[in-house]
Amino acid sequence: MRLAPAGLAAGVLMTLAASAGAELLIYGPKDRFLGCIDCAWKDERSVCAPYGTYGDPRSESSIWNRFGPEGNPSRFQSPWHDASLAGPELVTAEGRYLGRFSIHAGAFRDWALLRGIFETADRKAEDAREVFCEYVKPEFWTDRLTK
């Protein structure tokens, strides 16, 4: 796996943080909860909790499981599907819709950056997790959301 440039991942997350100003949550079809982007890693809801329901690449509920229903790039509801606009929704805890959490061009205004992380990880969701989560640390969000 090649590592993504720090600026690429940080750019995506800084834009998300500035847009939201609150917890960033991912929901799949039929309002199925898929995790929290900016929760602490110890929080079971975090997509970065290494052994949590949503952060463990082996979990069926994880967007990082490339063989599971939520992370498999060949499934339309996956954020890693190239042509689908049915990827998970990104919303704030207050319910404000921010767009689709997806690499598809029409999904979210910063799709190219998220796609860049995925491409840099050789199109493997579990490797994209490493790059993405490197920048989703509580101190990263605290610094940006308090300014």
Short note summarizing the structure:
By secondary structure, the protein is an alpha+beta fold.
Structure description:
This protein is of the alpha+beta class and 147 residues long. It has one domain. The chain is 29% helix and 11% strand. The chain is built from four helices and four strands; from the N terminus they run H-E-E-E-E-H-H-H. The protein has helices at residues 6-20, 111-120, 125-134, 138-145, and strands at 24-27, 33-36, 89-92, 97-100. Strands 2-1-3-4 form a four-stranded antiparallel β-sheet. Helix 1 packs antiparallel against helix 2 and helix 2 packs across helix 3. The longest helix has 15 residues, at 6-20. The protein is globular and about 30 Å long. The termini are far apart. The model is unreliable at 1-20 and 141-147 (pLDDT under 50).
- Radius of gyration (Å): 13 Å
Structural class category: alpha+beta
Give the CA-based shape: globular
Q: What is the count of distinct domains?
A: 1
The largest β sheet comes out as: 4 strands, antiparallel
Q: What is the average of the pLDDT values?
A: 77
| Order of strands across the main sheet | 2-1-3-4
